[in-house]
Amino acid sequence: MGNNEELLNACKPLMNYSWFVEKVRTLCKEMGIEEAVDIAIDEMPESFAIKRFLRKNKSEVELLCITSFSERDEKCIHDEGFEEGVRGAVLIARELGQTKEQTISLVLKQYELAQEDAEKYVDKYWNEK
After folding, report:
1. Is 119 helix (H, G, I), strand (E, B) or coil?
2. pLDDT at residue 30 above 90?
3. What whole-number distance in Å separates Cα of residue 46 and Cα of residue 65?
4. Is the pLDDT of residue 45 over 70?
5. What is the dihedral of CA 82, 65, 102, 117, to 10 degrees?
6. N or C: which end of the chain has fewer CB within 10 A?
7. In the prediction, which pLDDT does 39 show?
8. Are 88 and 67 in contact (CB under 8 A)?
9. How many of the other CB atoms lie within 10 Å of CB of 73?
């Protein structure tokens, strides 16, 4: 079992977020991001602790997803939209009570960054309000 899987199993909100990200990615292949986010939130099990948070902050979540899932536009990795997506992920993870280490692992996995880069982004945005 890899470290990421162990972390996900040990941290329910992180596992919930990972489920959500994967669901949105899958749905985006067939529809627009806003619709994919709506459906993913609706289909999310009620037992997921982050469901209420995602519903409450849907517009921010959509913005985060737009910048994060823009795989159709590879240059996104180098523009400020990518960084804004990472920033949103850090702030959401912190708001959900994740530790800095858990958030680094999330950013590392979701944005396919090197450990050093993930740490840099989390350090940069961790104390932002």
Report:
1. helix
2. no
3. 21
4. yes
5. -10
6. C
7. 93
8. yes
9. 10
